[in-house]
Design brief:
Number of domains: 1
Keywords: Membrane, Transmembrane, Transmembrane helix
Number of strands: 0
InterPro entries: BofA
Distance between the termini: 45 Å
Strand content: under 5%
Protein name: Pro-sigmaK processing inhibitor BofA
Helix content: over 70%
Largest sheet: none
Structural class: mainly alpha
Radius of gyration: 18 Å
Length: 89
């Protein structure tokens, strides 16, 4: 039981230290804002793709894997996810 609390304490402490390091640098806030904007755009893109699934017959779930791929790679990432889905199914 004590080990569980120790793990949580290390996790919280390391997360706080990471946040301090990111915001201490000059471009840290800009980096977080840019990443947040990319996540919102990727989620919106996946949502629009799922709304149009009646016409395109393409459905991609919005989960951490698809959202992360769409966030990092953008539109080519969404096309990659569609290609992987078509190849596997």
């Amino acid at each position: 039981m004590i080990f569980k609390y120790a793990i949580w304490g290390v996790l919280i402490l390391s997360s706080l230290m990471l946040v301090m390091i990111v915001f201490r640098s000059r471009g840290g806030g800009r980096l977080v804002a840019s990443l947040g904007l990319n996540i919102v755009v990727a989620a919106f893109l996946l949502y629009i793709l799922n709304l149009l699934s009646g016409y395109t017959h393409i459905e991609l779930p919005i989960n951490t894997a698809t959202l992360g791929t769409a966030t990092i790679l953008g539109i080519p990432g969404v096309l990659l996810l569609i290609g992987v889905k078509w190849a596997l199914l």
